[in-house]
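Teaching note: in complex prediction, the entire set of molecules is handled at once rather than each chain in isolation. The prompt given to students was simply: 'Predict the structure of this complex.' The entities are:
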Amino acid sequence: MSFLTLESLTASYGVSQALFGVDLTIDEGQVVAMMGRNGMGKSTTVRAICRMIPSDGGLTFAGGDLHRMPSHKVARLGVGLVPEGRRCFTTLTVRENLIAAARPGDWTFRTVTQLFPRLGEREGQRAASLSGGEQQMLAIGRALMTNPRLLILDEATEGLAPIVRQEIWAALQVLKSQTGVAILLIDKSLKELAAVSDKAVILERGQTVWSGAMAELSSDVSETYVGV
Amino acid sequence: MIVNERAINALVIAGLVGLPLWALVMDEPFTITLVTRAVILALAAAGLNIILGFGGMVSFGHAVFFGIGGYTMGILAYHAQTYTALDLGAFTTGGTKSMPLIWLAAMGLSAIVALFIGLLSLRTSGVYFIMITLAFGQMFYYFAISWAQYGGEDGLSIYVRNDFPGLNTLQPIQFFAICFALLCIVLFVKARLTASPFGLALNAARQSGARVETAGLSPLRLKLLAFVISGAITGLAGALFADLNRFVSPSMFSWQLSGELIVLIIIGGVGRLMGPVIGACVYVALEHVLGGITEFWHVYLGLILLSIVLFARGGLIGLLTGKEGAHV
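The expected output is the structure of the full assembly:
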């Protein structure tokens, strides 16, 4: 049975419908890439999973119906989100950002700073004074500190320098190979996504139009729906 | 000149200890009473600062808890001193003159009312939150005015200050010591609280409730807990204030008092540990010094407040340390 299941998921922003039927399944420990051009509903799907917007259709995680839960309960159930645009708590230090929402588990301040040594070096620094890459690492670290069973990364490498992007992708490889956390990745870098993901889902106009093993994703399909 | 915040804090504490001792030596009991008043107002504002400075909630009805603390003291002491029964429905009591018991009752009752007000008001934010808390304040104010059994508009006088084991509370220096010790305890707890995961999460919720929610925390629960703690501390201050004056009146519930508590925090520094203490000291000093010169001393206070808001966003502590305060 799948860990996370979305069946014909629909969602709207007021009167404007954004999702028209998203189907997606993620198994435990699986890394899934969600792709599609801008405005096709990827971030809206993430917001619906995290219950930040109301939605209809099937939405279950670890056997529980997420529709019945407020956002913070979804997170407590084990869904960790690294939101688009980093969104660290700017007035808190690196250490404070990490421990503010920490929950018991394997991920602690020590293990997070082992994954991202730069965070350890800047633990007393305010998040606002970090570089974009460091803020992104902090956002990932903060989500890991909640000890999630499913980690969602929404455009985690967007706008970062190539060397920092490499660090983030390397960290994701470590997460995949050394932990059992399932990962839902949204990114535009097809090459890196292909290297780390087991499965891909493509959205077009708020609907799932392609789903399958990453190895089966043909260049025709990716060119048609993703533009690369 | 940039001054270290810890040095400022140490200086303020030293001043709060030194001034009453000097007044004791010089046989100036009124000065001790004046400092005690500042300490109690600091305690009330320290309670408010938990939600205003760290949680970003501008409560314009915090006098509710100050008044509840005051009336709890007044009613319990009145019945104890007049040997009359206080009928609480489920049981009857003869009241009490014991300060610790009165504090527990004042904090407990304030916390319960804060829970109720918080549950209703914290679902809103911004100007709506301000208006709801103000409305609750006015409700309690007018209730106190119409509560003829306990003095109504005229208030309720308590003829003897309540007891504290081992101390003579009628001695100004001993009553000051009690109030100062309570302020120190509250400041210590507050410092620990703000550095704890709860305090950090509350600070984070001030920045973005949605982000805190996706980290598995309920902003409403965080804010509600902070509101309850804040209300209980302000309730304790109200009980002490009533004991200081040996008098309670509906003015303890007034919106002017709620505003004054906010002013104290702004003067000292929003979100600063010692902000309310410095604000209260400056306020009481101005009230005493300028109040002796002109009855329109609030005009000068207004000018000072205006200057701080325009030129020292972090209050006096921010001005001296060169750091801005929390953005509310």
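Point out the following to students. Chain B is about 70% helix and 0% strand. The interface with chain A takes residues 197, 200-201, 203-204, 207-208, 210-219, 326 of chain B (CB under 8 Å).
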